Amino acid sequence: MAIAAHPDDIEFLMAGTLRRLKDQGWRTHYFTVGNGSCGSLTRGPAAIARVRAREAKAAAAILGATFHPSLTDDCTVLYGLPLLRRIAALIRQVAPTVLLVPSPQDYMEDHTETCRLAVTAAFVRGMPNFRATPRRKPIASDVTIYHAMPHGLRDPLGEPIVPHAFVDTTAVHDIKRQALAAHKSQLGFLADTQHMSSYVVEMDQMSREMGAQSGAFEHAEGWRKHLYRGFCAEDADPLRDALGKSYRVIASGRG
């Protein structure tokens, strides 16, 4: 299951790994907490949110993943009980073995708050005293959490973030590009607000940079594995087990 802040975030940094798992026979899920309501300089929030939901559904279909609707407007992705209870319900419903989430460090708070919400929602998945909304029974299954790279591959102060491991996404890079290109409404918006001359080219550059850092792959996505405590066995690494030689560990991280 991939959880990100906004429609198109999954495509930038997680979609290749999600598709590689799909190709290995895994059931995959696509969910963004924010609905893209601030992603336009010309349309109102409700109108652009409808457009971005259609685009996200199209992208999820390209990736072969089950789409889950967003829960809140952009810039209202705040760490608190209402959102936490709803995300906890979704995680209990899906019961993911692998949870792909944003980096703990990124250039905007929607991304980092999504990271915090997803990690806590996974942590309380088996706690009967934590009430989810809607009510879902707790689950006993393990989940291994992997943090994606931040946008631009650097923290908010411009320092590089170094992955623990890389997934070879070369074989699925064209699919990843198609999924990102499905977010047509963002072409002009990202150019105007974040100085991306082409959001697909921007993704290509990050993908190639990760491939170069891997020392083995043309295109790659970088990952850092979350500490195992409260989530899975200490030696759990389902991406390694699923992807074999297409997964290269550089550093073990902290568990």
Attribute tags:
Rossmann fold; three-stranded parallel beta sheet; 13% strand; 8 strands; alpha/beta; 255 residues; five-stranded mixed beta sheet; single chain; 9 helices
Provide the fold topology.
Layout: E1 2-4, H1 9-13, H2 15-23, E2 29-32, H3 45-63, E3 66-68, H4 81-94, E4 98-101, H5 109-123, E5 144-148, E6 165-168, H6 173-181, H7 186-194, H8 199-214, E7 220-225, H9 238-243, E8 247-249
Parallel strand pairs: 1-2, 2-3, 4-5
Antiparallel strand pairs: 5-7, 6-7, 6-8
Helix pairs in contact: 3-6, 4-5
Notes on the protein architecture:
With about 260 residues, the protein is of the alpha/beta class. The protein has one domain: Rossmann fold. Helices cover about 40% and strands about 15% of the residues. It is built from 9 helices and 8 strands. The chain has helices spanning about 10-15, 15-25, 45-65, 80-95, 110-125, 175-180, 185-195, 200-215, 240-245; strands spanning about 1-5, 30, 65-70, 100, 145-150, 165-170, 220-225, 245-250. The strands form 2 sheets. A 5-stranded mixed β-sheet has the order 4-5-7-6-8, sandwiched between helices. Strands 1-2-3 form a 3-stranded parallel β-sheet. Strand 2, helix 3 (about 45-65) and strand 3 form a beta-alpha-beta unit. Helix 3 runs antiparallel to helix 6 (about 175-180). The mean pLDDT is about 95.
* First and last CA, distance: 20 Å
Shape: globular
Lateral strand order in the biggest sheet: 4-5-7-6-8
Largest sheet: 5 strands, mixed
Which second-level CATH architecture applies? 3-Layer(aba) Sandwich
Outline the low-pLDDT stretches.
none
Please provide the count of β strands: 8
Structural class: alpha/beta
SS strand fraction:
5-15%
Number of helices: 9
